[in-house]
Amino acid sequence: MASSGPFPRQPPDSTSDPDAIARNDWNAFAEIEILRDHWAVKQWTPGRTGYYWYLTFDDSDLNALAADCQKALAIGGVDPVPLDALHLTMMGVGDTNVVSDQQIDELVSFARESLSEVKPFDLTVGPLSGSRSAIRFSVAPWDPLLDLHQILSVCTAQALPNSSAPNSSRFRPHLGIAYNNTDRAAAAVIDAVAAVRTARSVTVRVNQVELVVLRRDGHAYRWTTRAVLALGG
Description:
There is one protein chain. The chain is α+β, with helices and mostly antiparallel strands. It has a single domain (18-230), classed as Cyclic Phosphodiesterase, Chain: A (Alpha-Beta Complex), CATH 3.90.1140. The chain is 31% helix and 30% strand. The chain contains 6 helices and 11 strands. The strands form 3 sheets. Strands 3-7-6-5-9 form a 5-stranded antiparallel sheet. The longest helix has 17 residues, at 143-159.
């Protein structure tokens, strides 16, 4: 399987059916032969910071599910995502040394107006699956996330006309709980994930989007919030 591009390479048969989404995620993960070191694959220059659109969750049920799965996996060679850093990445905007404060202010203004027309929605988080370098939950449905991604992409292109706004056809929503930190055969990790795959799922409410300034601290992603934009105004 190719080591770059969206994962899974093909979207699910249905972007509204949780079973189809989970099945597509799992089938792609189960075919992986080699897991990559996330921190080597995802290059990050020391001191770099960048703007990203994030969904974050202050949800005790989600935290409990993630903690239970992290504990149950009991495998070496992974870095669990801190429970206060669980997130769903919508898209990157640009490095802070490239994007100006004025552009960010314009972006926030465009997005605030556009998101005022978007209604809050619920997401099902789970079951567990993985990617080429991480262990992560499937999330469903994708439809409201794809719509949200498209809106943010348009707003980003408006505020940063020289940037390459991400294509929504390549967006694969997910919520990570651990990053693989060494190159290795995938079979044992896939088996470990399969053993806890029947863990419960949870429902979370999406009622806002955050623009964050992201940094990498060791083997974890951390951020400060630049703006919080409510859905539906």
